[in-house]
Amino acid sequence: MKTEGFHNQQTATTMPIGKYRSFLDVNPVCLPDRQWPDKRITKAPRWLSTDLRDGNQALIEPMDPARKRMMFELLVKMGFKEIEVGFPAASQADLDFCRWLVEESAVPEDVTISVLTQSRPEIIHKTIDALQGLPRATVHLYNATSPVFRRVVFHNDREATKQLAVCGTQEIVAYMEKVLGDDMVAGFEYSPEIFVDTELDFALEVCEAVMDVWQPAADREIVLNLPTTVERCTPNVYADQIEYMSRNLSRREYIALSAHNHNDRGTGIATAELAMLAGADRIEGCLFGQGERTGNVDLVTMALNLFSQGVDPQLDLSDIDRVRRTVEHCTSMDVPPRTPYGGDLVYTSFSGSHQDAIKKGFADRQERVADAGGDELAVPWEVPYLPIDPKDVGRTYEAVVRVNSQSGKGGVAYLMSTTRHFDLPRRMQIELSRIVQRYTDQYGGEVTADDLWQIFADEYLPFTSAQGLKPWGRFRLLATTVTAGDEGEQSVLTATIADGDEEHTLASRGNGPIDAFVSALSQLGIEVRVLDYAEHALSEGGDATAAAYVECEVNGQVLWGCGVDPSTMRASFKAVISAVNRALR
Fold it and tell me: Is the N or C terminus of the chain more exposed, i.e. has fewer CB atoms within 10 Å?
């Protein structure tokens, strides 16, 4: 055997890589004494939902008023305290929604509404006018600051770009003081749009100039929002940018440093989390990552990432399916089944080895919780392949394990246990999984819990156990009486067994009821040797039933049988009949 040259070499492509440049070659970021890698996230950030603005503007069909109201009510119920509702100067629909919030007194006292505006006086005036009557509101000013936008879109130099931000801030301050009442709590947010591509020294210069106008103080916070409007660098580079700004901004104690991340490179969540390590106080995003192009950062995933680390996300996601259904209805877009925490398949394992580990993990946890007096919170969550307890977000355990051609005994056994309360012995699990494997190889697709029950009942139980099954099997147990022998004496059995259309009443003796029953079968020419036996209750109370499992050698075949009956003894006899019928099938 040779191992030399085992790894194949990747080959060059003909893709036009020459037209692209490394991000750090375009916008160098140097922070050799960075501190963020040694930090930990220990509390939730301030959250701002932009579902009704950034999320809505990205929809093929923007939300109608009814859907906007439903989304707003969901956000409030989840616990969002800052909600961006639109661009009222640019959209009549956004303006109408702002006014509806005022006229219907729909905004709780502890919720701040945010609206977006460009740096133009007429737009600023219309934006602020839309807010009159709200208890709390933030005006969010933005202008693009990156070199490409300065050169290509606006034909501005640095000074003109900075003055656009300064003049817009001046206009906002003046018009707020003119028209907003004393009862309204008014805030201000500034975004150097395309921050990620803006030279750090210039981004700092613009933010300082804006603050010189707003004059942040203890009772006059400013939100400085630093967006990856288009995600163009790795998360660690953005974290360096955030730490640089956080360390160099003056009046830092009066600033809410905010991150607004998109997902163009697929790392929006990692980018936002590293930004928190680097000093971001506030995160803007959308539920399930709605938003322009590849979407805004997914606030559901971010919040539950915190939850999975023992940090209170301060957003209520205890019924994640309700949140998902509402988002899907309001946006007319589906949440993909593999979406973290909220997708249909994220708590589901098809792989046999995964299913086996999950099954063992649940059993271990059940035992440890019992040892802790039933206190769930006293036992840390440690179940393989499940980062959180599905029950904590309103999911059930029924869909945790699903069966297909890749599944093994663990998945089959888990479904039988959780949906039908059959705790199969280990070797019987292996036998059943092979039967299910043959089924999936023949028919393909997934085997649901109902499908599995049909397969199990058809193989092991009378045809009456499940709908749609055809009768089969040579023998049926009709009646039995057993007299237990005194100490040292054998049990005496009388059994009536149907063999096709014939009935046989058999009498026999044995070292216990099962041995006596096997002896009775030998009178019909059936030689059975019992190798293993297990039983358990399927239910409790007056109508309790029992399940019995018997591993038998029948005419040289080793296989399992199962019986169900209110009588444990009759259940064991039925299990022997089940094994015999399977051997003769």
Answer: N
